[in-house]
Structure formats: C-alpha cells, structure tokens
Amino acid sequence: MIIEINSKKDENKKIIVKDKVCHIGTDSSCQVQIKHSTISAKHIKIEQDGSKLFVTDISDSSGVMINNIKLEPRQKNNLFGTLPTRNWTRNTDFS
Predict the structure, then answer these.
(1) Could you tell me the sign of the dihedral formed by the alpha carbons of 79, 24, 63, 12, in that order?
(2) Residue 43: count of CB within 10 angstroms of its CB
(3) CA atoms within 13 A on the CB side of 86
(4) What count of Cα atoms within 13 Å lies in the side-chain half-sphere of residue 39?
(5) Secondary structure letter of residue 73 according to DSSP
(6) d(Cα 59, Cα 77) in Å, to the nearest integer?
(7) What domains does the chain contain, in order, with CATH numbers?
(8) Taken in order 18, 39, 4, 27, is the CA torsion positive or negative?
(9) 55: exposed, middle or buried (C-beta count within 10 Å: 0-12, 13-18, 19+)?
(10) DSSP state letter for 10
(11) Residue 50: its pLDDT value, please?
(12) Neighbour tally for 36: CB within 10 Å
C-alpha cells in the first residue's frame, strides 16, 4: 500500500508499505513515524484485507479524523465503505 502524508509545513511524502498491517505513530516500532506533538506513540493502524483497507484509531488520547469525521477509538473502519472518500485515491492493486 502507498501512504501519502500531507502536511501544511512539509512537502507531501509518499511511503510504500509492503506489510498488510501498518502502524503510524511516533514510536520507533511503527512502519510510518511522524514526530509531532499531536501524534501518539501508536496512533493509527491501517490493515489491508484483499482490496479493502481498514483504519483504526489506536491512540490513547489524540484522536483521528478522516475528512473531518472523528473516528471512534479502537473501532475498525472500512476506508472505502463506511467513511466518505473525497480526496482519497483508491488503488486496488496492492502488489
């Protein structure tokens, strides 16, 4: 999967993750590390299941918003099913 990080401060970054599960956070064990005061050690989990992507807020307190919708903590969300997908690019070729 390709994760694109958009930042007002930095240029956009594209990160290729070959695992089926990706953790995003400040912790060194995360595949994608973002050093920012609003990001938890383990903040977001993204899982690939076939052509579906699921995102889960695993942060302790910061919370996660996608397209201005706050995710419920610890609830698995189908990125292309239950969440509005404007501004998202769907690529089902996860090879």
Answers:
(1) negative
(2) 23
(3) 3
(4) 16
(5) B
(6) 15
(7) 19-78 (2.60.200.20)
(8) negative
(9) buried
(10) S
(11) 82
(12) 11
Note the helical H segments in 1-95. Answer: none
Tokens representing 82 are 């239950």
Q: What is the pLDDT along the chain (95 residues), one digit of tens a residue?
A: 667 666 566 566 777 777 889 999 999 999 888 888 888 999 999 998 887 888 999 987 778 887 777 888 898 888 776 555 444 444 433 33
Q: What is the DSSP letter of 19?
A: S
Question: Which pLDDT score, from 0 to 100, does residue 31 have?
Answer: 87
Largest CA distance in the chain: 34
Q: How far apart are CA 83 and CA 65, in angstroms?
A: 11
Determine the Cα angle at 25 with ends 38 and 55, to 5°: 100
**Which structure tokens are listed for 73?**
């903590």
